[in-house]
Known about the structure:
By secondary structure, this protein is mostly beta strands.
Amino acid sequence: MKNAFFFFFLLLTISAAAQIKGTVTDEKGTPLPLINVFEENTYNGTTTNEQGKYQLHLKSAGNKIVFQYLGYKTQKIAIPADKSDLDVKMIEENYSLNEVVIHTKDNPANAIIKKAIASKKENTKRTSHFKADFYSKGIFRLKNAPKKIFGQEIGDMNGALDSTGTGIVSLSETFSKITFEKPNNLKEVVTASKVSGDNKGYAYNTARSSFYDFYDNTIKFGINMISPIADNAFNYYKYKLESTFADENNQTINKIKVIAKRDKEPVFEGYIYIIEDSWAIYALDLDIKGYRMKEDVIDVMTLKQNFSYNKANKIWAKNTQSLEFSAGLFGIKFNGKYTYVYNNYEFVDSFDKKTFTSEITTVDINSNKKDTIFWNANRPIPLTTEEITDYTRKDSIHKVRNSPKYLDSIDKKNNKFKFHDPITGYSYRNSAKKYSWSYDGLLDFTSLNFNTVQGWNFGTGFSYSNWQNEEKGQRTNIGLKFNYGFSDDRLRATGNYWHQFNNQNYASLKISGGSTVKQFNRFEPISPFINSISTLFFKDNYMKIYNLEFAEIEYGQDVANGVYLKGKIDYEQRKPLFNTTDFSFYNTDDIYFSNNPLDPDDNINSGFEKHHLAKLDLTAKINFGNKYASRPDGKYNIRNYKYPTLYAGFEKGFAGSEKKYEFNHLNTQLRYNHTFGNKGDFGLSLKAGKFFNAENIAFMDYQHFNGNQTYIGLSGNYLNVFNLMPYYANSTNDSYFEFHTEHNDRGFIMNKIPLLNLLKSNLVVGYHLLAEPNISPYSEYSAGLDNLGFGKLKMFRIDYVRSYQNGFQNEGVIVGIKFMN
């Protein structure tokens, strides 16, 4: 025991001797955050926190410590062997322009930027292959959050918010080992992870989201922002050389102000520091306004990067980075900050081909088990008082609120039955045993709709959920839904069972059945809500439905990296339905179209006869170049947008009440998205298919295409819809080819047009084509504006569309509403 105690004491002594800590202030004693602190000629460094405090774990004895901060003189201090505390006062830099030769016609800043652009290839090559230790910390705060949002109580968010709706919602840290190869090959192993308020949690702030490389022409912040040293930077920026100064190695640093030429462009503002002769980046201090990156909810983001120099290899490498933002919506303010520290760089010429695989990030299963001693000894940036309080407070709250006694007390309070629950709905939860069940009530207005077959109809239901093995990804849901139509006086019911087996290959089983109404196009091109509005106010009953009684079983899972397979088999009985009501708010003298999708004027025939059929449906989804992150709580796929996504399917109808209903159907779809620098996003969707032995199949088994006759567009669905095509005008049981393409300029053109650029909108152009045997192709051309709205709410899109089939056919304006997706 004595030997063990002595050994432990010795470790603590060694650890303390190898750490230097203190506070950095200005000459007035004001703490300075984000001071760059590192060992001279090494890539071992850190930064100060918001209170000016730092701690640096020394790698070797005798090295000097460098304190570097933009606007202040760099200090280089030798540390005595017996000293572990060091407070430093930074002195403001006396800037000079004496050595800069200023010509009457030439802007000296432009000359420096041109040399930095010309040297990008050489400078980026120096840091294109490396290994490093990585630390990240993320914090997210809310201010003035309301008690309810859209009628839903948000509570105190597990103890995060105080009585004013203010507090830290998220605080987390990670340590990892990273191997990186430009432009985007990454291998990361997370060795330590800490989440405030969840001692079993794994943080998500990893290195994957930290690579903002300004040697590239564009940097992605939602959209591609133009680097101040991009090849075409002079088209977007003006520059001003504000000062020069010498760093600790007597290298001349140029402080250049970056100024936007046009306010609405995807540009940065602030300062870039360029090193004389090498023309490498010394530091960055840049602001990104939310509207410039098409994120109007965000007010501003501030990105800071600091680089350190090693005389041995003469490489400037990024050692600290911070990304801070503030935002707000509906009176709610929120802000956050991510801080990253890179240490112990090891630069190499190349990596073995097997170094990088599809697995980008691996989170060690024991990474969340590191204790306080570990974090205090290894954390490169000291916690602020606010962060220490948050960890302590939330850890205590987590223990209390996850205790069986507390969970039981909360459940008893929330599970109390109220007299109005039979009408408004009721839910019961057992948090300790991890299950719940609920009743939707009779006043679920989201299920209240109108159509000409059922008239006014509403639904209710029961559901059961179980998450006892949630940490393994196992979840179960059982549901029972009822729908009653007042006009046809019929109650229909469906039930379903769904179980997910794990979060690794996402294997899931679904069993369902019952009686319901179904649109002939199973992809439901018109929603019940939009159909209700169109029917009641304009007497346009576009939705065509039939009665379906069915039993179905479905199973799917990932079978390989980026490959998902799903199989479904079902038995269906289909019955015709007819209009039963002519009710409408307006146009009461007009007559509704029939429910026959083949003949809107035929109210006697339905377009098909009652029959039954069994169907087998096999689908494969392949994400080419798929990447993924492996965590103890699951595998998370990361789509590689350099490559398309392919869907392939086979559908077979068999065991029909008559042989004529049986068929085979092969189909495929290719989807692809690509961003062209700052010139916008291109989207493409190709579909093709072929039916076999399907001359007399039922109409609901045809291939239907998503038409639109309501002039309401669903944003996000434009690569899967013909905006002016009648819903069933071109349905087929033969071969078909469907083509959709669209380009969103993301402001590239609109930002340059006076007055129109005040809209902060995007120009969108599109083309859509449908080709089938024996009929003329159907095509559409569209041009419109996206990202329209009021203030920070950009929820509208407007398109002008022209359609052609056998010559000009139709034209119209489509209004897209994003919240209706």
